[in-house]
Amino acid sequence: MPADFSGSWERNYVLDDEVNAVLREAFNRLSRTSPDQRNPAGPGIAMASSRDVSSLVALARLAELITRPDVLTISQTEHEISIERKDDYAMLCAFYAGVAKGIENGYGTEICGWDGAQLVSNLVLPDGLQVTHRFTVSADREQLRVVTTVSSSTSRIPFTLRRFYTKFDRPRSSFNCIETLSMKRVCSTGEILP
Amino acid sequence: MICCMANPWKFLLPQLLVFLAGIALADAREPAALNVSIAVFDPGVPAEQSLHRDLQVFPRIREIEAMFLPFVLRETLANTNTWGAVRVVPAPDVAAELLVSGTIVQSDGENLKLRIRAVDASGHIWLDRVFAGTVTDSYATRDDTYGSPGYWNLYEEIADNLRLARGLLDDKTLRNIGEISMLRYASQLAPSAFGDYLNAAADGTFTIHRLPAGNDPMLERIERIRGVEFVITDAVDARYQELHQEIASIYDLWREYRRKAVAYQMDDVQRVQSSRSDAPRGSYEAMKQLYDNYKSDRIIAQEQDRLAVAFNNELGPKVAAMEARVAELEGWVDEQYAEWHRLLEELFEVETGLSP
Known about the structure:
The complex is a heterodimer of chains A (about 190) and B (about 350). Chain A has about 190 residues and is of the alpha+beta class. Chain A has 2 helices and 13 strands; from the N terminus they run E-H-H-E-E-E-E-E-E-E-E-E-E-E-E. The two termini of chain A are about 25 Å apart. Helices cover about 60% and strands about 10% of the residues of chain B. In chain B, a hairpin with a 5-residue loop joins strand 6 (about 200) and strand 7. In chain B, helix 1 (about 10-25) packs across helix 7 (about 215-275) and helix 7 (about 215-275) runs antiparallel to helix 8. Chain B is elongated and about 95 Å long. The chains are: A alpha+beta (about 190), B alpha/beta (about 350).
C-alpha cells in the first residue's frame, strides 16, 4: 500500500479548521458565485439566496458532526484499512488484488482508493449527498490530516473541513485480553492464544 | 508414523475392542443396513475473497461448521436404526457403501441450507438436492444433547429421503452394493488382484464383472485390512463426536447471536421506513437521517464481524487440536495403506507368479 496509516491518532485542535471561519469563507464564495450577483443590493455587496445559505449551513453542521471524533484507531493489513471512530461506524477500505472493494448496503455506497499516497474514501448517499474523506500522513508518520468534504445536490457548493491528528502510543496494559462468545472479554496476565 | 504419535492406542484401543466384539455381529448385518460414510462438508466458501463480506460468510467459522454439521446428520441417521455403521469421515471415500457428502449453501443462524448428495458404491445417485431449514420457536426451549434443534426438521428430512431411496431397492440390489463396495476397496488396495472384477461405465456407475471365490485368501486379507481401517475411521469419528460435544454450546450461542443480528437488521429496516423524516430535502435533519441510516447498518455488520472473531478466539484452539489429532490418525492410515498396498501386490506376485 502506498502509505501506512496504522496506529492511534488524537485530534490536534490547534491546527484544526475553525468551523465558523470556514463557513464565512464558504458564504463569500457562495455570494461570489451567486446568480443574484448580477443584481447586487449595492456596490460590492453580493447576496446568496436564503435557500443556498440554509443548505450550506446544513452541510457545515453535518461535516462538523462527522468530523467530531477526537481519536482515530487505524489498523492496516495487506488487504484492508480499518479506521475506527468513536460514536461512528468504522470506515473500511478493502483491496483485493490491488482493486478497491466497495461496500454497499440499502442506504448508501462506500468506495475508497488511493490518490498517490492519499487514501480517499467516498460515501454516496441518497438525494445526491456525498461525504469524502481524504487522509494524508506526514513523512515522519507523526501527523495525520483528514480533509472531509460534504456535498449535496441541494447545495451549489460543497463544504470542506480539515482535521489534524497526532500519533500517540496507547499505554500498554498489564493484561492480555480477547473477546469470547461465552465469557465475553477474557483477560490474563499471561499470553492468551486466540 | 504410529511410533511418533503421542499415544495412538489411547485413541484406538476402545474402537479396537468394539471392533473385535462386533466381528461376530458383522455377518448378522441385514443386507438393507448399508454402512454410511458422511464426509466432512464442503464449507461453501466462495473462492472470490471479496464476496465474503457481502455474503456474510466467515471462512473459518464455515470450516468449523463443515466439521460440526455432519455429526448432527450422523446422529439423526444413527437414531433411525435403519443403517449399519454411520461414520463421519474427513474426506469422501468412493468405496463407501453409501457416501453422503454435503455443501453448506447458507448458514446465518436463522436459515440453514445444505446441498446433500448421496451416492452408493455402484455409483448410483440416491439424492442430490438442497435442503433448507429455518430456526423454529422450539429452538429456545428444546433441550437437546446434540444441539442445533432448530434445524432438526432439516436433518430428519434428509434421513427420510435417504430411507425412501433405500426403500426403492430390493435386498439383492443392496447386497450387490455391499459387494461392489468391497471390490472397489479391494481394487484400490490390490489392483493387480482385483482390478478386473468390476465394469466401470462412462456415467460413473459400476457393475460386477465377476466375483472372487468365497474363500479367496487375498479377499480375506483385504477384509481384515478394511476392518482395521474401520477401527481407525471410528477413532476419527470419535474425534468429531468429541469436537461436537466441546463446541455445541458455543456454536448454539453463535447461532443465537447471528439470529438476533439478522432480526435486528430487519427491525432496523422497519425503523428506517417508519421513521422517515418529514424534514425538507437538503435540511440538516434530512441529511443527518440519511447518514445515520447508513451508519446504523454498518455498525450492525461490524458487530457481526466482532462476534465472528470472538467465536474463533474461543473455538480456534479446540478445533486446531482436533484437526491435529485427526491428521495424526489419517497420517498413520495413509502410511499403513501404502504398506498394505505394497505387501498385497507382492503377495499376489508370490501366489500367482504374475508381476503386478
